[in-house]
Specification:
Helix content: 40-55%
Number of helices: 50
Enzyme class: transferase
Radius of gyration: 43 Å
EC number: 2.3.2.27
Distance between the termini: 61 Å
Pfam family, one: WHD_UBR1
Number of strands: 22
Pathway: Protein modification; protein ubiquitination
Largest sheet: 5 strands, antiparallel
Function: Ubiquitin ligase protein which is a component of the N-end rule pathway. Recognizes and binds to proteins bearing specific N-terminal residues that are destabilizing according to the N-end rule, leading to their ubiquitination and subsequent degradation.
């Protein structure tokens, strides 16, 4: 009760003080004060509790009115020394503003990034700057902001060209950058410093205050009341439903009130849920803690004194005020930066900014947002203090301990500093930022196995939570490495290599993590954890690539990095582990020392980042030619090729064995790992680097040794090393499963050999550029089928800037086909690029390979070209001659094709060597090798001899052309010159084509003769049938003769009756009537439609509709009294009639109606009665009017309402009782009334041509029920244009006793329960019907590639497609009849 009395007395007392208060006098008093902080604190202690937090329900209107007058105005008077409006205007007039735009983005506001000029994807422009810049004519990416970032217009480091828009173009006369404080007087600088120091310290103290019942010294109120708030705080653990349920129990509120509480807690981070004395609030706190602590950490609840809450509320207002004041002058901004970063009495890391960052995780969401905005408008906008702030930021921020999402943490500001190249270099060299980030990351991941590898298998919930948090550090490292240095200093080299060492330590903890062992006998009981390791790998993919790019930009760094990486790999491989004992392999007179290792029996890991980083650096040594120019600086003597290839080869063989079905009992976890190993998200730094390492090792080894090690690791050595491999193979593979496994393993091994010797479209392996690699990728994707732009983008790897390089080459290899009203634009491969197709392309999956082969065969058949033979040869190199003697073991299609492909590769490679060689001598003698027989003791025939034997084998018919081609090419290369070889190949191809043409001509001639024979037989049969049925045919001809009398009888001239166009006597054309037979859906009886036949009817469904509405504001009619068949004159609601189209007998329908208890009324009489019922109220009013006007007595029938009322009223008013006669007698009067019919058809609203305009409109939309909070999901009604706050609790309303969302409720007010909406931030069209039916539909906005972008994931500019929008409108007009299941 005391609290309530205080509430009533407070406003009157405050009004009295307000009338006597003078901000100018208060400021003058402060100017004379010897202890200004004490005076200001006393003022705040007196007035803040009287303005804020005076009761259970806050009054923001009073607060916003009184706080500026009583609290902020004295501060402005003191700062300016005169009227604030005058003083601040002078500051603004004398200010020389920075060229930086600095516009802070709101949630959902559109942002633009130029894909040609931006330094990285984080560099964005606001809409106004973008429209005034040169980048609107470039390729750009459009996204929606999550809030918090600012426009980079004017930042020369953010743009390669065009850093300024028209508005922020620098003035040449003001090009000299002066100290912003130079134009400000010393007295004002001192006053500003005093005010900013006091207010900022006050705000920091209150926002970081952790005592619930006390205030800092000097802020104790003169009168302390016993009023408290039970304050509920937000977290990222409990759901909306849990909070709502708990609040209903704790504070005895309704569900609607609990929803409101939960919404504000989620938005602002905290909310008072109870007001009263301490005991009253403590009771609610105990209930909340008890109900939410059963399974998880309880909700944070504090019982806080009202004066503490009041000062915290004003502290937020004070920070907002500081942000507004510094906009007037850069000098004020500079002073605030000085105050914020000034060291406190505690020494280092004791500034006010440090205090805020250290306590960031303890503050609630609303407080964080306010001071983050202040940092962005002050520290990050001043180039001098931005560097100092960046240094302090690196030392203080720690997101891992936070319990909120990163977007609410101060660490989210890292992108504003780490992505600036100059700041990143400075932080690396002076603060060792790279090493700090990596070591911090590793410090948080302490769970390791005995070998020191990361172990995620037995992670607790807390460790998993920490792992998710710590991944943000990888994002920070990505920002630091985003821009490669163009100039290196010795200090930068030193610090980068130190960071590289730390990065190698991280990769060493990943090398060999999550090893797997083949499960034999019994299926694995529980799927092991694998996602965490691959999540880490995907997060580091771009980091590894950027590390290599940094190394490639400086020769010294590249050499040192290569040495360090090789040393780290040697350390990982030091010593033999269990199962890796040395052995010697002997085969075909060659021997090699290796280790005994079986992938199917020992541990094997798919994670080998150290090996793969070394492979990337090895390729860079070749690409930059460092290996050729500085060989003496490289540790070439330390290279051990068998060591280099060992683990990548194991990983590739693991994939082969999984494909062979040998690891089925290991469950889906391994299958998923193999999938991501080859997936475009991971393959660049996994599969591709393993292949490069295999190529590097093979190039440094004896080819025979390499092949023998490969056979050993594939576990095929025991088969192929036998003197009689045929018998050994048959004996070893008596089991069909083992036979199939070995066949698959041989296929996989041959495929690996083809990839190792043939895939050289990688910079550093072959003499190609990145654009050549991208072009080849696109060609092989389009060989599968024509693809949309988005499909191609998904199939290509992205770099750190989210670019694939596709736009540079796509037009040279494909043709674009624009879409129609439906579908997408497609790229189709140019015919001349089909020659680049390689069936064994290393990025093809088995499914892709099969689809591509079938597609190319189909194209060849359509073009009339040979699909076998020469077309299987591609221009690729070969180093090896092997495996053909063993194809006689099992002449399987794929095996033979792979071996022939290898031989063909060798022949083409030799041809290229001969053509490019200056003389006749060449060291590439592949033809000689395949002509040489095998060595003793096997004495196997040569490869050519075997091919000659196989060319006539009937089971190899499909390969006959290929074999013959190889044999012909071999003979020509031995006997003729290169020119003759080329001529013969042309002749051979022409010969094959001529042969095919002759064969096709012969078949066409046979088909023609066959058709002529069949037609002759049919003609003979027809003549025979007509001869036997002459009378029937004669009668038919007479009926069809136009000169017969029957036609004349029905001609218009011979008919005496009037022409009638409708009804049973309507005029018909000559000839017999066309019979129409239908089937009754109820009785299934067939019935002919005749005028004298049984009546047939259709069932119709009549419902309410607003498609033609001219007044959407009218509330829905009462369904008990409203007749849906007739409309109100203003057409607020109309009717829609639809039919399923099924025909019924009238009597069948009547029987069903009687059976179902429905009243049967003739439709005509129903219409008659309804029209009379609508007119009766007007007739009664007219009768009353003329009764009192003329005094004519009312007839006795008026006193009793009955069946004769209509006739009595008409007689009384001298009107005919017949409706038609009533209309025709008054036609002149009624024509003007009916002049407005038919009404103009309604249309859905017009949309802007550029989708960004729609996003900008939605970004300014605020939730109507959440105090100005930005709507998370603004949704536009396409019928009336209203913007709604959808998908949120805040705007739920009750409809017919049920809570529904804003869109559903709007449909009943705007569209009679049917609505069509556009979800702006998702770019989706939403159809709704009633409370439970709805579906999504493709939006009418398309990018330049003819595709929609639902979810705005790709970021391509979107423009309105009028044809598709017309289709949406057509759907809206027929919305009530839509089949929702199939839309």
């Amino acid at each position: 009760m005391a609290a309530a009395e205080t509430d009533r007395e407070a406003p009157s007392a405050l009004c009295s003080e307000f009338l006597q208060f003078s901000a100018k006098d208060t400021a003058a008093k402060w100017l004379q004060a010897s202890n200004l902080p004490k005076e200001v604190y006393q003022h705040l202690a007196c007035y803040v509790p009287k303005i804020y937090c005076l009761g259970p329900n806050l009054n923001p209107q009073n607060e916003d009115l009184l706080a500026p007058l009583l609290l902020q105005s004295p501060l402005e008077w003191y700062l300016c020394g005169e009227e604030p409006s005058v003083g601040l205007a002078k500051l603004e007039q004398n200010n020389q503003p920075s060229q930086l735009c600095g516009h802070v983005f709101k949630v959902g506001e559109p942002t633009y990034s130029c894909r040609e000029c931006a330094a990285d994807p984080t560099c964005v422009l606001c809409m106004q700057c973008f429209l005034g810049s040169v980048h609107k004519e470039h390729r750009y990416r459009m996204t929606t902001s999550g809030g918090g970032g600012f426009c980079d217009c004017g930042d020369t480091e953010a743009w390669k060209k065009g850093p300024y828009c028209q508005k922020h173009e620098p003035n040449i006369s003001d090009s000299s950058q002066k100290d912003p404080l130079a134009n400000m007087s010393e007295e004002m600088i001192a006053r500003t410093h005093n005010v900013f120091s006091i207010i900022l310290k006050y705000a920091v103290d209150m926002l970081t205050w952790d005592k619930e019942d006390e205030l800092p010294e000097g802020l104790e109120p003169p009168l302390r009341g016993d009023t408290y708030y039970c304050m509920l705080f937000n977290d990222e653990v409990h759901t909306y439903e849990q909070v709502i349920y708990t609040l209903q129990k704790a504070v005895s509120c309704t569900q609607k009130e609990a929803v409101s509480f939960a919404t504000i807690v989620d938005r602002d981070g905290r909310k008072s849920v109870r007001f009263g004395d301490f005991q009253f609030c403590e009771q609610a706190k105990s209930v909340i803690v008890r109900n939410t602590s059963r399974q998880t950490k309880p909700l944070r609840v504090e019982v806080m004194h009202s004066s503490v809450v009041a000062h915290q509320c004003f502290a937020l207002k004070a920070l907002t005020w500081l942000g507004q004041i510094i906009r007037c002058s850069d000098a004020l901004r500079r002073i605030l930066c000085q105050v914020g970063l000034q060291r406190g009495p505690e020494g280092e890391n004791s500034s006010l900014v440090d205090t805020l960052m250290l306590c960031d995780s303890k503050m609630w969401k609303g407080a964080r947002n306010v001071y983050h905005q202040l940092f962005m408008s002050s520290l990050l906008m001043d180039s001098k203090y931005k560097k100092l702030f960046a240094i302090q930021f690196c030392l203080q921020s720690d997101y891992v301990k936070d319990d909120h999402d990163r977007e609410f943490s101060v660490t989210d500001l890292s992108v504003q500093m780490f992505a600036v190249p100059s700041l990143a270099r400075m932080l690396i060299t002076e603060e060792n930022l790279m090493t700090t980030i990596i070591r911090t990351f590793m410090d948080h991941l302490r769970h390791r196995d005995l070998q020191g590898h990361f172990q995620f298998e037995r992670y607790t919930a807390q460790q998993a939570f920490k792992f998710r948090r710590v991944q943000s550090l990888i994002g920070d490292l990505k920002y630091v490495l985003m821009s490669r240095p163009t100039e290196w200093t010795d200090q930068l080299r030193e610090k980068y290599l130190e960071g590289f060492d730390a990065f190698l330590e991280l990769l060493k903890c990943m090398q060999g993590m999550d090893p797997v062992v083949r499960q034999v006998g019994q299926h694995i009981e529980m799927e092991p954890e694998w996602e965490a390791a691959f999540t880490l790998q995907m997060k580091l993919t771009h980091i590894i690539s950027m590390m290599q790019e940094w190394c490639a930009s400086d020769e010294r760094v590249l050499i040192e990095a290569y040495k360090k990486c090789l040393s780290a790999l040697t350390h990982c491989h030091s010593g033999f582990t269990d199962g890796e004992q040395p052995i010697t392999l002997c085969m075909c007179g060659h021997s090699v020392d290796t280790i005994r290792y079986c992938v199917s029996q020992e541990k094997v890991s798919i994670h080998l980042p150290v090996s793969r980083l070394l492979a990337g650096l090895h390729a860079l040594l070749s690409k930059t030619e460092v290996a050729y120019r500085f060989p003496e600086q490289l540790p070439l003597s330390e290279l051990s090729p068998p060591m280099l290839i060992e683990h990548p080869l194991r990983c590739l063989i693991l994939c082969a064995q999984v494909h062979a079905g040998m690891w089925r009992r290991n469950g889906f976890s391994l299958v998923n790992q193999i999938y991501y190993y080859h997936n475009v998200k991971c393959r660049v730094e996994m599969f591709d680097q393993d292949l490069i390492m295999l190529q590097a090792g093979a190039s440094m080894m004896d080819p025979n040794h390499f092949l023998m090690i490969m056979l050993s690791r594939f576990e095929l050595y025991h088969i192929f090393s036998s003197a009689d491999c045929r018998k050994r193979y048959s004996r070893e593979n008596a089991n069909k499963d083992v036979l199939q496994q070995n066949n698959t393993l041989i296929e996989e091994m041959l495929h690996l050999v083809i990839m190792t010797v043939g895939e050289r479209y990688t910079a550093g392996v072959g003499q190609v550029e990145s654009s050549d690699e991208t072009r080849r990728e696109i060609v092989h994707q389009l060989c599968i089928r024509p693809m949309a732009h988005s499909e191609l983008v998904k199939a290509l790897p992205e770099n750190e800037n989210k670019e694939t390089g596709m736009e540079r080459v796509i037009d040279s290899v494909s043709l674009f086909k624009k879409p129609g009203v439906t579908g997408r634009g497609l790229y189709k491969l140019r015919p001349e690029c089909a020659k680049m197709f390689n069936l064994y392309f290393y990025h093809y999956s088995r499914a892709d390979q099969s689809k591509a082969e079938e597609a190319q065969r189909r194209i060849k058949r359509q073009n009339g070209e040979d699909s076998d033979g020469v077309k299987r040869l591609w221009r690729q190199p070969v180093i090896l001659d092997m495996f053909l003697p063993h194809t006689q073991v099992r002449a399987q299609y794929e095996l033979v094709l792979q071996v022939l492909h290898l031989i063909g590769m060798g022949l083409v490679e030799e041809q290229q060597h001969l053509i490019s060689s200056a003389d006749d001598d060449t060291n590439f003698n592949f033809t000689l090798k395949i002509s040489r027989p095998g060595e003793a003791p096997a004495n196997t025939p040569s490869i050519l001899a075997l091919l000659e034997t196989l060319q006539n084998a009937p089971h190899l018919e499909v390969h006959k052309d290929m074999i013959r081609w190889i044999l012909k090419v071999k003979l020509i290369q031995i006997s003729l010159q290169i020119a003759l070889l080329s001529h013969w190949m042309c002749v051979y191809v022409k010969m094959v084509r001529d042969k095919d043409k002759a064969e096709r001509k012969r078949k066409a001639e046979m088909a023609r003769l066959r058709r002529e024979k069949i037609m002759a037989q049919m003609s003979e049969m027809q003549r025979h049938f007509i001869n036997e049925n002459k009378e029937l045919f004669q009668q038919s001809l007479e009926e069809l003769d136009p000169s017969t009398s029957s036609t004349l009888e029905h001609s218009p001239s011979s008919c005496d009756s009037t022409l009638v166009c409708v009804g049973p006597r309507r005029w018909r054309a000559g000839g017999s009537e066309r019979r129409q037979m239908v089937t009754c859906i109820l009785c299934q009886e067939e019935q002919e439609i005749r005028t004298d036949g049984k009546a047939m009817v259709l069932a119709a469904f009549v419902q309410r509709s607003t498609v033609m509405s001219k007044n959407r504001k009218r509330p829905p009619h009462n369904p008990d009294k409203y007749d849906p068949l007739f409309m109100h004159p203003d057409l607020s609601f109309g009717t829609h009639t639809g039919s399923c189209g099924h025909i019924m007998h009238s009597h069948c329908w009547q029987s069903c109606m009687r059976f179902s208890g429905l009243h049967e009324v003739s439709s005509g009489w129903h219409l008659w009665h309804c029209v009379k019922a609508g007119i009766l109220p007007y007739l009664r009013a007219a009768a009353l009017f003329f009764h009192y006007l003329n005094g004519a007595p009312a007839p006795p029938e008026f006193h009793t309402l009955g069946a004769g009322e209509w006739e009595a009223l008409c007689g009384y008013l001298c009107l005919p009782s017949n409706l038609l006669q009533l209309y025709y007698n008054n036609q002149e009067l009624m024509e003007p009334l009916l002049h407005g019919f038919p009404r103009e058809s309604n249309h859905i609203i017009e949309l802007p041509g550029d989708y960004s305009a729609l996003i900008n409109q939605a970004s300014s939309f605020t939730c109507p029920k959440s105090g100005g909070d930005k709507s998370r999901a603004p949704t536009l009604c396409l019928v009336c244009g209203a913007m709604l706050c959808s998908q949120s609790y805040c705007c739920q309303t009750e409809l017919e006793g049920e809570d529904v969302g804003a869109c559903t409720a709007h449909t009943f007010a705007c569209g009679a329960g049917v609505g069509i909406f556009l979800r702006v931030r998702e770019s989706q069209v939403l159809f709704l019907a009633g409370k439970s039916k709805g579906c999504f539909y493709a939006p009418p906005y398309l990018d330049d590639y003819g595709e929609t972008d639902q979810g705005l994931r790709r970021g391509n500019p979107l423009h309105l497609c009028q044809e598709r929008y017309r289709k949406v409108q057509k759907l809206w007009r027929t919305l009530v009849g839509i089949d929702w299941q199939h839309l």
